[in-house]
Predict the 3D structure of the following.
Amino acid sequence: MKTTLRTLLCLLLSSLAAWPHDPTGPAANTAGATSSKLIYLFPTLYGPTGIVLPNTDHAAHFTSAFQSNFSPLVGSIVNQLTSVPIPSPASGFLYSFDSSLGVYTRSGQSFGPIFAERAETIGKNKFLAGISYQHFNFDRLDGLNIKKIPAVFQHQPAANPEFQKDVITTDNAFDIQVSQTVAYFTYGVSDRLDVSVAVPMATAHIEIVSDATIRRIGTSNQPDIHYFDSPYPNKDRQTFAASGSARGLGDVLVRAKYTAIRFKSGALALGLDARMPTGDEYNFLGTGSVGARPFTAISFRRGNFSPHANFAYWWNGNSILAGNVQAGTKGNQSDQLQYTLGFDYGLTRKFTVAADYLGQTQLQGNRVNLINYAAANGTAFPNVQVNRARLAQNAASLGIKANPIGELLVTFNLLVALDENGLRDRVAPMIGLSYTF
């Protein structure tokens, strides 16, 4: 047993040392700004100071709308990137002491939930090692297609009020993908207490393409006032683009779970998750803040059928992701209420199905709404508005666990979004392997 533990820990440490912690390439954009951190893709998309047109006779700055419209939009994206769920490190096998035989025997008729937690612990001196992989290709943001998000940029105050009537409209396409490979370990300290650690290796890829068009509301007869440095005759249009990728260690999660009450057909457990800010928040690999999640889990057993429920509160600290990146100030990340209801059912001794309803509420989330911007001549242009509000998100977890041999479990799961609140991937797959010693 000790040799096995040493081998597994050595493999883990070796993988951590070998995993690259820097981006796979620089984040670059056509405006000429470069950065090695993904977080700077957004504020430097149009250049260091926003959209500045090349006319040297007129300081045509369209930066105020960049701050008021685009930055909150980025904030809502960042909040969701740091809320990617991690599979539960709970063991699929449970062990109890058989006093008549004087040994620990495997108990339970099913292999447990996938994203939820059950109240029973793994068993004294038992050890679980597992790995899972899940991929998210986000496609909706509060019901909007992230390939088609509009934003209107207004002119800063100018001496000539006619110049100020012009606006720049943008059609923005985002490609946001996040993957997680999570190594997790659980050890039974006693019959009632086990401890777990989850070590995620994350990758993030972001591409932004913004098609900008000058709308000459006040200078329709003066094309030499506002124009892009683009080839003739398209001086009223320009495309800005930026992209980057990063991979490395995510935020490590440590968990302790204690079975407080046992009754004839189930149990109730209390637990605590502690999140370490080991991931690089500037590359969207971590939250950039410590976090604590007290939770309770209750589960029942009736033959092969095991219903369960979880209730938790995520407390989050301060992070640059919730503050002002350009000013370098931190803000408080939104706390979350989390609740899970579901069941797992052992179809056979080798095969279990699991289904869960996963709900969470961000107490101070960002909600993006599509509105119309009314120009000076009455023309309406689509625009986005971001409001601070509670943000409820719901998902369904549908999966299977198979036991092909020994104490090996193979897991496959689909995480299905049940609403369009926040940044969502309609269906996110996950596959995993675990072994109990």
About this structure: The two ends are 8 Å apart (CA to CA). The CA atoms of residues 88 and 114 lie 6 Å apart. The domain at 20-436 is CATH 2.40.160.40 (Porin).
